[in-house]
Design goal:
Blueprint: H1 3-36, H2 39-69
Helix pairs in contact: 1-2
């Protein structure tokens, strides 16, 4: 694995951790809103959860490509 590929892989892995943390925060916020939030706020969190799930899948695919390529 080349140095550049290795650096890109490390960057993607950091992005994955950040994305997973953001997903967890949106899930947590949604749980809090179920008790006191409006339907609009809950729907917004659902939307954000879907977006971050897609982002995480894309990052995982990129990591897999780099590992196979490496």
């Amino acid at each position: 694995m080349g140095l550049l590929t290795k650096k890109i892989l490390e960057y993607q892995q950091k992005k994955l951790v950040q994305a997973e943390n953001l997903l967890k925060s949106h899930i947590s916020k949604k749980e809090q809103l179920k008790e006191i939030g409006s339907d609009k706020e809950i729907a917004n969190q659902d939307k954000m959860i879907k977006i971050w799930n897609k982002n995480i899948e894309k990052i995982k695919q990129e990591i897999n490509k780099l590992q196979i390529k490496g």
